[in-house]
Amino acid sequence: MNIFYAPPSQIHGDMAELLDQEAQHASKVMRMREGDRLIVVDGKGGRYEGPIRRITKKSVQIELEEHQQFDEPVPKIILGMGIIKKRDRLEFAIEKAVELGAWHVALFRSDHGIKENVRMDRLNAIAISAMKQSLHTYLPAISMHYSVEEVMDEFYDAYCLMAHEKADTDRSVRSISKDTKDKYLLLVGPEGGFSPEEVEKATVKGAKLVSLGPYRLRAETAALATMSQFVT
Ligand code: SAM
């Protein structure tokens, strides 16, 4: 059955309303009609099912006959990524991070990175699509930060691992994070890597340097390699 997204603000009692792209997709692309059944996820763990009751130019209204509420994922994984210059690579990384179950994606400007060149509307649309495609019910927030330090301050309560090419190869993600924590912040640098100052500041704040092996991975590969260690 087709899955659509409606945030909690579009769910009123036993009715959900699809708007904008989601409504267009249901009525114009999928050509769904009144009475057709579909699944709605609210991005906060709610999964609903029911028939379409009304289609207007701007919205599709669904009667919610079934409801399941899913628990928040454990551990919560926050992927902190330096902004990658190539937009398609950044978008790829975000799509795959959502599929792998990221709780939050925190993008940051970095010393060896580029000036901000990010379309948040596109990234959010990619995250919604990846959430639906991979049958997740929680939609990760995507946030933008001025520095890696700012990301660490924001997620001060997470156990922080910084992927660094010069980390000892014995220090794999698994070797460092054997004890289960409930929240991890995984930091990955942009194409140009982290500057020595960024590494110094992050380690002073408590980040543990981890290796992804002896070879240099592209930033988006490194992000997915780090995330994949937490897939259960
Ligand atoms: N020349 C850059 C440097 O010296 O850091 C290369 C950066 S690499 C393309 C982008 C990011 O991926 C790095 O900042 C790091 O976070 C991560 N990364 C790539 N390969 C890695 C490895 N073997 N171990 C740990 N992290 C790695």
From TrEMBL:
Its EC number is 2.1.1.193. Keywords: Cytoplasm, Methyltransferase, rRNA processing, S-adenosyl-L-methionine, Transferase. PANTHER family: 16S RRNA (URACIL(1498)-N(3))-METHYLTRANSFERASE (PTHR30027:SF3), RIBOSOMAL RNA SMALL SUBUNIT METHYLTRANSFERASE E (PTHR30027). It is found in: Cytoplasm. It holds the Pfam family PUA_4. The lineage of its organism: Bacteria, Pseudomonadati, Balneolota, Balneolia, Balneolales. The keyword S-adenosyl-L-methionine applies. Residues 20-65 form the Ribosomal RNA small subunit methyltransferase E PUA-like domain. Belongs to the RNA methyltransferase RsmE family. Its main location: cytoplasm. SUPFAM superfamilies: alpha/beta knot, PUA domain-like. This is Ribosomal RNA small subunit methyltransferase E. Coiled coil: none annotated. Residues 73-229 form the Ribosomal RNA small subunit methyltransferase E methyltransferase domain. InterPro entries: Alpha/beta_knot_MTases, PUA-like_sf, RsmE, RsmE_MTase_dom, RsmE_PUA-like, tRNA_m1G_MTases_N. It comes from the Bacteria. Specifically methylates the N3 position of the uracil ring of uridine 1498 (m3U1498) in 16S rRNA. Acts on the fully assembled 30S ribosomal subunit. Transmembrane segments: none annotated. It comes from Fodinibius salicampi. It is an enzyme of class 2 (transferase). It catalyses: uridine(1498) in 16S rRNA + S-adenosyl-L-methionine = N(3)-methyluridine(1498) in 16S rRNA + S-adenosyl-L-homocysteine + H(+).
